């Protein structure tokens, strides 16, 4: 059963000279307990689609959709107050840059305890105990000490673990991870991805993984949605997509994987698409 359903989502941004379309009639569906990967290069509308579902786009965004439901609840018909009861509690999001997402003026402990007090209604003492438990759960060393650390005192990987702890603090039913391994080295990337999948399996939450890395998709996803220039190109289970991609753009993404290189250099997506057109 679907936990999130979006039909015919369009997002336009107003500019001084008119508007431009960032998302053009996209459908998104993720089932309970499923890992959905949304893939595509920068500018394909991956993040904007999910920010629209979260209600986090700026006032310059014009959002329309035929349907946008969370577990049968109509998000489009909700007031901002009603939506806030779901966003940040039942639906949470991990953003691309953990350092930029954390407030540099407050400790990690203060920030996660605020989430727990506001969204879970815990007392200060209970929030602190739960924060330590969460820091342990995401594998942060010296969790009590990390509560006192400011973002600049932690590594990128540690900051991302803090963000994950904050995202799972309220036991969400849907977690959206937007390029969660950007700017991390390869070893830390694998640790973060393994952590997300372990948490997803342990809690049974649905996970939407936004990425441009097809290798990550192959290792983590149940189903894949491919986007290009604001449109959905293809959707399939992960095995079918890798074994028999239907869309030229999907084939172009797969051709750029290192293991698929046929010469000294990997082909670019543009060059692959050009060769398909000329053929």
List descriptors:
Oligopep_ABC_C, transport, 279 residues, ATP-binding, globular, 5-stranded antiparallel beta sheet, alpha/beta, ABC_transporter-like_ATP-bd, 6-stranded mixed beta sheet
Mean pLDDT: 89
Query: Segments where pLDDT lies below 50 for 5+ residues?
Result: none
β-strand number: 11
User: What's the Cα radius of gyration?
Assistant: 20 Å
Q: Quick one: biggest sheet?
A: 6 strands, mixed
Identify the strand order in the major beta sheet. Answer: 7-8-9-3-10-11
- The SSE order reads EEEHEEEHEHHHHHEHEHEEHHH
Helix content: 25-40%
Q: Which structural class do you get from the secondary structure elements?
A: alpha/beta
What shape does the CA trace take?
A: globular
Give the N-terminus to C-terminus distance in angstroms: 42 Å
Count of alpha/pi helices: 12
Strand content: 25-35%
Short characterization:
With 279 residues, this protein is α/β, with parallel strands linked by helices.
């Amino acid at each position: 059963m679907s936990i999130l359903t979006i039909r015919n989502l369009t997002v336009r941004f107003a500019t001084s000279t008119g508007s431009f379309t960032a998302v053009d009639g996209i459908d998104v569906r993720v089932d309970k307990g499923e890992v959905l990967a949304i893939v595509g290069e920068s500018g394909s509308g991956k993040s904007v689609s999910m920010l629209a579902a979260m209600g986090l786009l700026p006032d310059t965004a014009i959002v329309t959709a035929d349907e946008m439901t969370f577990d049968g609840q109509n998000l489009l018909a909700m007031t901002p107050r009603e939506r806030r009861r779901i966003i940040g509690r039942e639906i949470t999001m991990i953003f691309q840059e953990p350092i930029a997402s954390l407030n540099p003026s407050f400790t990690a402990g203060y920030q996660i305890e605020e989430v727990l007090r506001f969204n879970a209604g815990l007392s200060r003492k209970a929030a602190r105990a739960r924060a330590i438990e969460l820091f342990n759960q995401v594998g942060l060393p010296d969790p009590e000490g990390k509560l006192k650390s400011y973002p600049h005192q932690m590594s990128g990987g540690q900051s991302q673990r803090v963000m994950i702890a904050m995202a799972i603090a309220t036991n969400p039913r849907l977690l959206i991870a937007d390029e969660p391994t950007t700017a991390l080295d390869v070893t830390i990337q694998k640790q973060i991805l393994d952590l997300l999948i372990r948490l997803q399996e342990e809690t049974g939450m649905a996970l939407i993984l936004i990425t441009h890395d097809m290798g990550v998709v192959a290792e983590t996803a149940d189903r894949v949605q491919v986007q290009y220039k604001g449109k959905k190109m293809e959707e399939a289970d992960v095995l079918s997509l890798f074994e028999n991609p239907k869309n030229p753009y999907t084939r172009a993404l797969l051709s750029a994987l290192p293991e698929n290189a046929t010469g000294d250099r990997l082909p670019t997506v543009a060059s692959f698409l050009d060769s398909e057109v000329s053929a």
